[in-house]
Design brief:
This protein is mostly beta strands. The protein contains 1 helix and 11 strands, in the order E-E-H-E-E-E-E-E-E-E-E-E.
Length: about 130
């Protein structure tokens, strides 16, 4: 049965598995996800889809691996901190960028846009923008 990725993210795990996750939402969703799939360690990936209509309010980084950011609608400006400088990369529908392990990143959005994220969630950190 088809599901909306924005509502039901997918976990890519060991042994080339793909697991439909519970409906996204609530403050403790990520915590429950991490507990359920902790045994996949660094190899586990969260596949999610988010839509935005304003700049992000925080920075994040993923020390366990690289994150793929694929813009599927609109335009998103990915902002990465590289060697003490902010590097801005404009992504249009169909274009992607990679956040290398440990790179702080955020995004600016001026009009509605959507992106798919394939994220190594283990150890993800956040900080205010």
């Amino acid at each position: 049965m088809p599901k909306q990725l924005s509502d039901y993210p997918v976990h890519l795990g060991l042994g080339a598995t793909a697991v439909r996750l519970p409906r996204f939402g609530g403050d403790d969703w990520y915590e429950k996800y991490a507990q359920l799939h902790a045994s996949d360690g660094r190899e586990g990936r969260l596949v999610s889809l988010f839509s935005f209509d304003a700049p992000w309010t925080s920075w994040e980084r993923h020390p366990a691996g690289s994150e793929l950011v694929l813009c599927i609608a609109g335009e998103i400006t990915l902002v990465q901190e590289l060697e003490g400088k902010q590097v801005r990369t404009l992504l249009r529908a169909g274009e992607y960028a990679i956040n290398d392990p440990g790179v702080w990143h955020t995004a600016d959005v001026e009009r509605p846009a959507s992106a798919v994220f394939i994220t190594p969630g283990l150890g993800t950190e956040h900080r205010p923008r």
